[in-house]
Design brief:
alpha+beta; 6-stranded mixed sheet; globular
């Protein structure tokens, strides 16, 4: 029995481990997905380079528009917008 997903829907295990990128810069890696109310959030472990600059070790970003621009499961890359703003505010 196969589970068929609609376009733009993903299994959480496919999302976990994806690299999160904004404007060509790696922000971190998705550690897990959490559902809060009706919104799915990516729990992102911040890239070491950003942690060394004093940023939070992890942060949350909503897994929906306008934050999530592209999800490339094959290459394990999620392109986001506004992620750096969220990280700076964390």
């Amino acid at each position: 029995d196969e589970c068929h997903l609609q376009e733009g829907e993903y299994f959480w295990f496919d999302i976990e481990g994806c690299t999160v990128v904004e404007d060509g810069e790696v922000l971190g890696v998705v550690e897990e997905v959490d559902r809060i109310s009706a919104t799915n959030y990516l729990i992102i472990k911040s890239d070491e380079r950003l942690v060394e600059k004093g940023f939070a070790k992890s942060f949350l970003i909503p897994f929906n528009e306008p934050f999530t621009i592209d999800t490339d499961i094959e290459n394990k890359v999620i392109t986001v917008s506004g992620g750096m703003d969220i990280l700076e505010a964390s």
